[in-house]
Amino acid sequence: MLENALPEIITEQVPGPKAAAVIARRGDAIPGAIKCVYPLVIEKGAGAMVEDVDGNRFVDWVGGVGVLNIGYSHPEIVAAVKDQSDKYFHGMFNIVTHEGYVKLAETLNTIVPVRGDEKMTFFANSGAEADENAVKIAKAFTKRPNIIVFSGAFHGRTMLTMTMTSKKAYAHGLGPFPDGVYRAQFPYLYRNPAGMSPADAIAYYTDSIYRVFEESSPADHVAAIVVEPLQGEGGFIPAPLEWVQAVRKICDEKGILLIADEVQTGFCRTGKMFASQYWQEVGAAPDIITTAKSIAAGLPLSAITARKEIMESVKGGTIGGTYCGNPVACAAALKVIEIMQRDRLDLRAGEISDIIMARFNRWQENYAVIGDVRGMGAMVGIEFVKDRATKAPDPELVSAIVAEAAQNGLIIESAGVYGNVIRFLAPLVITNEQLEAGLDIFEKALVKCVKAV
């Protein structure tokens, strides 16, 4: 069975002949701006494994960029989707009520750790849509025009979320962009100013928010501060809890809503169902949480959850959309949550973390090119540098490792402001044997590419 298989390359190289033919067709039919660096054409997937059209098998540490925490083709989810499909595919929620939407909203209202006793949820289709809707709701509730986001942030590719996203390679040549989006410094502790202590760093990054108030937007014009509990595209950088507490205090003092973008961190990835549960434990729960990616095992769905008074401030007709809360996607999401809770995938994330961090930390001791290892649960980044003293990024080495690993049956992906981080986002259903096989391929690729420099 594929879900229990180990990586195996049977062609002389990848892509094999069948995959190469499809990739060539892709180049002719699809814009090159939709890039793909992997020589892989999927035939089928199960668990954490992918088999390509040539019969090569890969262990996948990307998981659709955090979409497949539950793995490929989980049989219970397949059954739930088939059952719903036999009834109906679609019924726009503004036209007909379907119980799956209601039940899923009720479920999220119970488990999502936003402030408030009475909560409400509505659905969109993507993480970017969820983030954009969260901003709309914050503006409706506060009657304020501006928001604050952070260096290293990634929130999507719509016009607003491109503006919110820090890395402007994602927005090159597409302006002008919306006004009212201002940026403070995210606590990237590995790259603190030289000689700065951890305590001073928290104060330094907190002060950058006050500088926004002084230099860009008065606090009473700010509707929301939007934070990723652990930055994804920015380089897998966790937000220190002391800093989150400071941000929460600022929001409370200034009447600003705190939005947690859990598009990538949600659904057991960080060792809890939601990373914001760590915030909640230290008294800093957010006001609004956005979720997507692993919510529905690969079907398009995202969610926005907040307390009732915030949600009910929105005027009719300003939120919602044709496909939002599609019945088939809702059926998948309900089954995803049921399985995650039953099988304790939050605890499995912790077990995976123990295994990979032991290896990653050992590599950091043995290979000078590894500058930092960081993360939360089974969401971990390894930052590669040319020199540990200067911390000069080494994106070329990362690109070489990604390519070499793929040739040997491991799919990994880069991240980071400088493209010098390799991220771990393997499905949480990965077996220990597959995990060890991937670690072995990764280390061999690392050694080979370091020697080639």
Task: Please describe what this structure looks like.
The chain is built from 14 helices and 18 strands. It has 453 residues and is an alpha/beta fold. The protein folds into two domains: 2-60 and 344-452, Aspartate Aminotransferase, domain 1 (Alpha-Beta Complex); 77-342, Aspartate Aminotransferase, domain 2 (3-Layer(aba) Sandwich). The chain has a seven-stranded mixed β-sheet with strand order 4-12-11-10-7-5-6, sandwiched between helices. Strand 13 (370-376) and strand 14 (379-387) form a beta hairpin. Helix 3 packs antiparallel against helix 11 (327-342) and helix 12 packs parallel to helix 14 (432-452). The protein is globular, with a radius of gyration of 22 Å. 50% of the residues are buried. The mean pLDDT is 96.
Number of strands: 18
Q: State the secondary-structure class.
A: alpha/beta
Query: Which residue ranges are poorly predicted, with pLDDT under 50 across at least 5 consecutive positions?
Result: none
Gross CATH architecture of the largest domain: 3-Layer(aba) Sandwich
Instruction: Note the overall shape.
Output: globular
So what's the CATH class of the largest domain? Answer: Alpha Beta
End-to-end distance: 39 Å
Query: Can you give the mean pLDDT?
Result: 96
Query: What is the number of domains?
Result: 2
- Per CATH, what is the topology of the largest domain? Aspartate Aminotransferase, domain 2
Taking all Cα atoms into account, the compactness measure Rg is 22 Å
Estimated share of beta-strand residues: 15-25%
Q: Fraction of residues in helices?
A: 25-40%
Strands of the largest sheet, in order across it? 4-12-11-10-7-5-6
Main pleated sheet? 7 strands, mixed
The CATH homologous superfamily of the largest domain:
Type I PLP-dependent aspartate aminotransferase-like (Major domain)
Total number of helical segments?
14
